[in-house]
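@channel sequence for tomorrow's demo:
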Amino acid sequence: MHGTRSADVSVRVRARATTTATDHAALAALVAARLASEPSTGFRRGHVVHVSEIEIAHRCSHCGSSRHGQPYVAAPLHLAGTVHVSLSRAGTWLALAVSRTGPVGIDLEEISAVRRAGFDDVAFNPTERAELALLDTAAADHARAVFWTRKEALLKLTGDGLRVDPRELTASLWESAPLLWPRAPLDMTTVQISPVHIDPVRVGDATLVGTLVQQVRGSEDWPRKSSDR
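structure tokens (generated this afternoon):
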């Protein structure tokens, strides 16, 4: 397992479990670790929140189902709305994110999964396809994964998921405009996009790309909902 920690978000990339419950336990453990590093928020009635107290559940903002949709901290109740979580699965790998400052979305993909025939037609708009066409094969494959993980991570953060046509969003390698969404339900100036660090020694032959998207405080429309894959 490996990961990073910033002032805002804790991230882990680890081997994927064989059950959803075990993946949820890994996310709960990351929440507990985050809280333990912040005693003022981790204590409740004189004791630290233990991982066994933390329950991860799902909620679809569209249909209300608990079988899919955004992951969230369902227990303890006093953490509701103060701890934001996201997860992503790619092949045999799992990416986790815990934010204390606002909604977060994370996405992890294997490059081989986004280079398959026909993917570009359903995932990317003409502007994106034109940018990909300028790159050599290896660079295009990597850029394709970067574009896709940026889109999915943001759509998880907003709670829309793939109910939104991903071609409505435009990703680019240009640093000045890494992701555009004219019809976004949030102020895009409050959105921060960053790559997920993936240790090539630990993941072996798997070629993974990850993106973390977070919404920061200071906007009238914060907080926002978040979603799972």
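heads up for whoever presents: The chain has seven helices and 13 strands.
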